[in-house]
Amino acid sequence: MKAWRTKFFVFLQDRRVPATNNISEREIRPSVIFRKVTGGFRSEWGAALHAGYRSVISTARIHGQTALQAINGIVVGKPLEMPTT
Fold first, then answer.
1. What are the helix (H) ranges across the chain?
2. Residue 64 and residue 47: Cα distance in Å, rounded?
């Protein structure tokens, strides 16, 4: 606990840091629903494919693209450019 004490309330010092992890929870919710409705994945490659698809679609949405635009970008070899920090 002592080693992490300074990391618990970062959101109080830096307003850019959200106080909750609701964004993360909202992002994984469609995958959780899919898993529950279908009874889970029957293969490792199916789970990996779904995870990759959700990652691409979620990232595209954050950057103002549609799912079709994101997938098309990958197919033609021009995936979404991630900003450098």
1. 10-13, 22-38, 44-62, 67-75
2. 26
Q: Residues 27, 30, 35, CA angle at the centre, nearest 5°?
A: 130
User: What's the sign of the alpha-carbon dihedral 64, 62, 38, 46?
Assistant: positive
Tell the burial category of 70 from Cβ atoms under 10 Å away from its Cβ (0-12, 13-18, 19+). buried
Predicted TM-score (pTM) of this structure? 0.58
Q: How many Cα atoms occupy the beta-carbon half-sphere of 75 within 13 Å? A: 7
Q: What is the pLDDT of residues 8-26, one digit of tens each?
A: 888 888 888 888 878 878 8
Distances (CA, A) of 36 to 14, 39, 40, 41, 42: 37, 5, 6, 10, 13
Taken in order 83, 64, 71, 56, the sign of the CA dihedral is: positive
